[in-house]
Amino acid sequence: MEDIEYWLEPELLHAVAFDVEKNAERLKRLASLAERIKEIRGRVEVKELGRPRAEHFAYAVDSSYGSPPLELIGGVFTVVAYGYVGRERGKGVDKHLSGALYFEDRDESDVSRFAALLERRLAARLLRQRARGAKDFDVLILDGEIAVHPLPFNLAVPGGKYEEANKAVDSLLGAAKAAGVALVAVAKRVRSRLLSAAYGGCLPVNDRAAATLVLRPGEYFVLGKLSEVLPKWAEIHYAECEGREEREEVLACASGGRAPKGERAARLCQRIKEFRANFAEVLSGRRYPNLPLLGEVQVAYYRPPGSQTAIRAEVLDFSGAGVDEVLAYLSATSSTVTGYPEVLDEVDKYVRVDPSFVESVLMMLLRKAPGEVAEVLLPNNLQKFRRLF
Fold this sequence. Notes:
Elements: H1 10-38, E1 47-48, E2 58-65, E3 70-72, E4 75-88, E5 92-104, H2 109-131, E6 139-143, H3 163-179, E7 182-187, H4 196-199, H5 207-214, E8 219-225, H6 226-242, H7 247-254, H8 263-284, E9 298-303, E10 311-317, H9 323-332, H10 342-350, H11 355-368
Parallel strand pairs: 2-6, 6-7
Antiparallel strand pairs: 1-8, 2-4, 3-4, 4-5, 7-10, 8-9, 9-10
Helix pairs in contact: 2-3, 6-7, 6-8, 7-8
């Protein structure tokens, strides 16, 4: 095979080589902590994943968007596709696909939140169909988490740009309860460190990495309800992960003791108190009657037989099957390739958006836009879109 030669600037090579060594040392330190992370196994109830006791029918809802979004003079532009794939009892495969344009002068991160809201609104409609008997299934699976940021930690500000998160999640939870199904969220990209609550300190890796060290293939454990887990996590996060040497001072203050002398410790103590107040408001139901159900969401970790990694799942069961049965179903239907439930993989493929489609839609919009404002649809960097312009 012919060698491929290219020039690499010495400065870049030196900088990257330095960072390789630095990250290698970081991984060595992590390896030394692996045994301590495995001690979580003795602090939770690890069980064997059995076969589901009954046949279950499930739907999965997901969304996708052309990534990265196009950066136009007037804002961020992309196409969001969202839909579901499911199997109804006695009716076979059922699919639905829809889409929406995103064109806002906001941060690119807001696109994923917009997509998540579309998912939850569609899921709520699907659940309402189940409640009135138009569809028949037992499990509804979401990609990610049941809540949308800033939930479940606190309510979005009334009238603010994130208020729709309150409404969409409240509607979703109410519809799931009325439908009498198990609402499940399977996280693919895990950044949370809720297992700090079982670790007993500041967890050095994310939940999925830690659970992979703890669980063997064919095992699972339930960490607990969000109403129990999040307050423990918040104290560890602010007092230890951020407070470090000021941990005891921050915890004493948060427990009703005197305020710390240092500004940093006082600020972290206030963060814990604010979390407690905000989380209590979410669970109060004063403004959104179904949001208290977030406190009943069970956080679980399972490792399907033959899988190299653990999976984090949130389960809110209104079906009566129980969290153990729901996890057994998720494991039994896991893909041998990804480890995720097969129906979630199916919907992921179904809602894909090709970047070339986003460009085509932008051209459609350009042709219909009034000439006076067409410039706002031009890219910030024309060199990236020479094919279009």
